[in-house]
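Dear Dr. H.,

I hope your travels went smoothly. While you were away I took the liberty of generating a structure for the chain from your last submission, since the lab meeting agenda had it listed for discussion. I wanted you to have the full record in hand beforehand rather than looking at slides cold. The sequence, exactly as received, is reproduced here:
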Amino acid sequence: MKAYLFTALVGALFILSPATQAKRPIPATNAEQLAYFLGNEGAYKDYMLQCAGCHRFDGKGAENRGIPSFVNSIGLFTRLPEGRSYMIRVPGAAQSQINNDELALVLNWIVANYSPEEYQSGHYRPFTAAEVGASRRHRLADVAAERARLEQIMQEKGWQPANYLYGRAGR
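The corresponding predicted structure, in token form, is as follows:
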């Protein structure tokens, strides 16, 4: 009986672990994906451990310290291939301790939580471990310059990303 309970407990812990959640298949529709990522406890925990120190628990960042808000803004980056790469390659993401599956899950969780309109538009394409792995190894030489370049592209399209004042006068 004890062996059975032990086996059942170990199995339950494995099924509920963040690593296992990262390997579960992603649902097909954007509405199902939104619910899937919003409910992913492993991604939430990884966000709190790897991202919230700068971007805060509520995703609002700290503009006075050069940390941009994710709220109603981060999803804009997913509309551009180079914006997606930027999200993967910022130092806090690229150099975090989580693997490619987990980072993809966290990025999808961030967009689901702070820019759910991207999922609701029906055009959102979730990050994958393969996409993360292909971009992650290429470090950004100058994060602020890349952010400024992307902001310019977005503004030309009529999109308004959150302010990013890191390295700029007036910060």
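Two observations you may find useful: Residues 10-17 have pLDDT under 50 and may be disordered. The chain has one domain: 17-156.

With kind regards,
E. W.
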